[in-house]
Specification:
The chain is mostly helical. The protein is built from 4 helices and no strands. It starts with 16 loop residues before the first helix and ends with a helix.
Amino acid sequence: MKYRLREPAMDFHSPSREYEESFEDFEAIADLALIERVESRDGDVRTLGTSYWEEPVSRLREQFDEQGEEWPPLQAEMFDASAERARDLLDTSENLSTV
């Protein structure tokens, strides 16, 4: 799934399930970026056991598995544009979601 704005722009604030899923995915990607930043400073990642992670992280994992190097966050040079780093972070977040 590639991320794009829907036409017309007024639909951006739609209460649809698609919007909710996109927002959850955004939150999960933001969390992955935070985890990466903390780990890059030799920090320990701690969580309160956020329960919303499981579904969006599963969606992100599916997207990553399907798109590989073409996954939009990698194309945006997140995670050092490294598929291996992205996979490691997804693994970490999957483990945190089951805490």
